[in-house]
Amino acid sequence: MTATEDIHDLTLKSIRVLIADLVQQFNGGHPGGAMGMAAIGIALWKYTLEFSPNDPGYFNRDRFVLSNGHTCLFQYVFQHLIGYKHMTMDQLKSYHSSRLDSLCPGHPEIEIPGIEITTGALGQGISNAVGLAIASKNLQETYNKPGFPVVSNHTFCMVGDACLQEGVTMEAVSLAGHLGLNNLTVIYDNNQISCDGSVDLTNTEDINAKFKATNWNVIEVFNGSEDVLEVAKALAESKLSTDKPTLINVHTNIGIGSNVENNCSAHGAAFGEEEVDRLHIINGFDPGLKYHIPAEVYEFFGDLVDKGDAYTQKWSKLVAEYVFNYPELGVDFQRRVNGELPNDWKNYIPSKFSASPTPSRASSGSVVNPLAKNINNFIVGSADLSPSVNLIWDKKVDFQNPQVNTSCGINGDYSGRYVHYGIREHAMAAISNGIAAFNKGTFIPVTSTFLIFYLYAAPAVRYGALSDLKVIHVATHDSIGMGEDGPTHQPIEIAALFRSMPNLNYIRPCDSEEVAGAWEIALEANGPTILSLSRHKLNQYPANSKRELVKKGAYIFKDIESPVLNIIGVGAEMGFAYESAELLTKYGLPSRVISFPSQKIFEEQSTEYKRSVLQRGQIPTIVIEAYAPNGWERYANAGFSMHTFGKSLPGNAVYEYFGYKVDSIVERIKSYMIRVQKDKSILWEFQDLNC
Amino acid sequence: MTATEDIHDLTLKSIRVLIADLVQQFNGGHPGGAMGMAAIGIALWKYTLEFSPNDPGYFNRDRFVLSNGHTCLFQYVFQHLIGYKHMTMDQLKSYHSSRLDSLCPGHPEIEIPGIEITTGALGQGISNAVGLAIASKNLQETYNKPGFPVVSNHTFCMVGDACLQEGVTMEAVSLAGHLGLNNLTVIYDNNQISCDGSVDLTNTEDINAKFKATNWNVIEVFNGSEDVLEVAKALAESKLSTDKPTLINVHTNIGIGSNVENNCSAHGAAFGEEEVDRLHIINGFDPGLKYHIPAEVYEFFGDLVDKGDAYTQKWSKLVAEYVFNYPELGVDFQRRVNGELPNDWKNYIPSKFSASPTPSRASSGSVVNPLAKNINNFIVGSADLSPSVNLIWDKKVDFQNPQVNTSCGINGDYSGRYVHYGIREHAMAAISNGIAAFNKGTFIPVTSTFLIFYLYAAPAVRYGALSDLKVIHVATHDSIGMGEDGPTHQPIEIAALFRSMPNLNYIRPCDSEEVAGAWEIALEANGPTILSLSRHKLNQYPANSKRELVKKGAYIFKDIESPVLNIIGVGAEMGFAYESAELLTKYGLPSRVISFPSQKIFEEQSTEYKRSVLQRGQIPTIVIEAYAPNGWERYANAGFSMHTFGKSLPGNAVYEYFGYKVDSIVERIKSYMIRVQKDKSILWEFQDLNC
Lengths: 691, 691
What we know:
Two copies of one chain form a homodimer. By secondary structure, chain A is an alpha/beta fold. In chain A, the strands form six sheets. Chain A has a six-stranded parallel β-sheet with strand order 12-9-13-14-16-15, with helices on both faces.
């Protein structure tokens, strides 16, 4: 063996044994994949990636995403070896412990320095990686000048057999191939083992051919658990691709060296004390010596901190010269690097709107399109519903491989900021998470489709919330009032999911003014937002709706003297609430109207404010919304809601079919109020008034 | 032209003009795809499919699924032409109307005779079709004998460009290829147009190569909007495949003949009166004559009713002879055809369980595995979590292509009833919908993965609910108590989605006895059920839990004299409720315990029963569950719930971290009760006691 081979060998053995030790410690975790991938790790961090341990957030770093997140020890152990200060051996030992200060959770989390994005559910990471590559590509095309490659990073992503079976992966892969993202390398840890056993229990496709059919380069490495240089060569080759993303199909051995090598038992359990001892011995280590990394191994990675410092210094210098040479572009670039919007961004939001009935999807377009047109942080796209979601601005340029000439003649380039995601809702949301994760605030990705189809995207929406990524989801056609497409397309239970999802703002504005407020919230938020918008025209309430008060979650929309009840109106169904309240007031039941665009934001308000709005215990509150009621019971004593799926009828007819008609609503509320007068105890039990 | 070509030509023109008329009528709908696919329709219903208009449910019929459901006029118009009695011209004219008796909704719905399954959201139908093919294959292998092909049907599925972009499609396609389902033909309406414009805006992959890489036959037809016989030939050829499913890539022209032919404007809007008139004229029809089908066209399809009758008669005779020759198998087959379980199915469910702490996933296994082993209606599978979900029974046989020899040596054949779905949660649920839709009750598909990953599968779970398909989803690892895998794997908001989804039972049993009750509910239900089960061991309550009372949704778990409060315990968190109640009672606050496995089932009970359980207005109720609270406010005045994502810690530690510890729960409840005593008005506002 050469000296290089020697040190690779020692390093591989050290890492494998360390991983076995760490998993044995608390008798839990995922050792096999991490062990099998050790050679890939050396090839990546020693020989390929540009990064800086002293500055994990270095803007132009190569991004690395661990899509097979359960192998996180792989990344933690390498973080330790390559000099990330936070990742001490003591921290490594916190894996699977009950230590609250642990930086080694069961799956990688974005809050940990050097982790680009939280992964775990399979298929998310690779889709995020496509987003990271899109972000970089767009910045390159927007800012780079001859001699000034201020953005030049590459994105690398590890996937396992499992990630490649997930639908979201195949969506993202298809789009990445179409877009020709040559700055993306996916490394496939091909160990042919998953939880159930060998992969051929369920998958016998030709992965290489499948990727080639989807416009990818494919490189194959056969001895991938041992041959560091061969992997490094493939990684280097992938960076030279001119017009395609690259899949490196690396054949590895899960649980290499253990008695369960190449067996599914190596995947998710400790090996047992005896076997760990044996592993120490066959790898040349003393079984008594746990958590041991030889000095030579530390030394082998010892140059990486200095190299990292050199990268960041060189880049800072390059940027300084760039700003000097291209002052206007340079200032803009620095703003993006700082993750800022132009100070005057709010000026693009209309201060007033037409008073004629307007679909809230159109209101949304009138708010965001001037922003998207003028502010290059925005990168907007649709899952093939561009004509329906009102997100196209004048002279938009598509983010597109400039080599593609489309049949419909709408072409683009990599500086474009409108993405045709295709009918790939899940990948759209996951890719947008990746774009947002490139660097906080540099991009504001906007996605769009019908609210119902965000159920396809829900796992990615969840990861955005979990990772606090500012992605804005424009969800139109958000009520049964969307009409004839019928129950398959009418959302009933979708809001209940998103209202209960932590860290996510789900906002359902009732008119253009509230839409403006909702967009302001979304743009000022840290995490993701879903804007829930109507297909059909909604009445406008210039005298009642207030964008500033949307930021309270709920507010008194129409007050009245000596009210005897509150009616909560929400989004597309505000009209029913408003008109019912007017009629009830006329009939001697003075009714206040409360607009309630966001439960989550309302919960964040003071008790005093909440009480001033709802007057709980003083007067009954009735909610009108054409969704499942779940959650409204917190604010209302009774309500009109949906307990079945919808129906294929024109918008007005479907509302009426389910009892959403002012006359009948008013009658039912009157009879409810009579019942309440007779027996106050019914206030204790939420009443479904249209059941 | 030959006479055949003549009648094809007239039929094509009649259909295209009729579709234009029907969409123009109410100025809405999807004409283009249906027009472009007309030749495929002739090839299918005139020349290929075995079906019976007089008996739409004929057991051995070829199944046809319209995965691109928005082109539903295609199917409605052909139903009319081929003699389905319900589909009159008057009914066709109800498309997009406000008629409540319409059988022509905006997307095909299973309740309509001849519609195999509800489709609409893209990718569902093709995945359902894979399920239909699996069902048929399994029956063939189980029952057919030489000379007695009692099950011999083929499954055909139409897809559009859009379906093929959806991830769930690629999951189902990959599995269908692996399984070698030669009884499945997918017909690709390749018009290269989607809503945004030409498909090459977002997709430039080589579909044929992609399918071939996934073990599919591919046949290409180029003149697919005109050449009926070429399509019919391809369909016939696909039926001869010996070991692979077939994709027929049929090139068509969306909106053929219209001024928006091959343009996205043809997709989802009426053409306008003038253009419809022009379409009449160029196709040789009088513009004044709307909704007109020439007599020759009716005549052309006139033989199909008799042919259908002949099919059903022949099959009935075949089955009668089969029963005579194979009496035991024949009786079993007839039971399956009738969609029945053996009468004694409940005997397989244990009447008692061990009193030692047991994970409810294990309880579930002990209930269902004897059923699945002994009753061949069950077809069980997992999304690569077989070792974790406790669904493997002794001597199970995998549903597997017998030609595949797996590396791990676990092989199977088509009579097997355990499916390795792979890491394809969405397809697993959608395929299971298809299996259930084969014939009501013939199969009971069981799926399994962690609860959190049912979010990937949620759109398909929804379609099962919408179509009333009895599929049972075994969702394990259903609480933060699952531990170290962390927030990516700990469900917080998932229950809120499924509790608010119409027609779906979401049941969270607290111990083995309740698990037995939950399975009984699932097996007696009409629609789908999610069983929400723990990874970790749960205490058993033989004196308290009652399987019969699970069927009430909630019940008094432990009563007490003169209670001052109710504590609701749910599923894996029952222990906290039960022990807290004991301690509080000891401390002078006599506390009843309510077990609450299902909100939806509880809502179906009488008001009297609900009041007897909850005593709303008499004593406060506190719920303890480690999920988002949304929905519990209906039943409780206060609660312990989750308002953030979870944390990567061992199970006990993560519970404790979020305040789920008996001591601290008791302290908080005591202080809550003191506050209530001082000021009853706080009962009006739901209190989050661990915030």
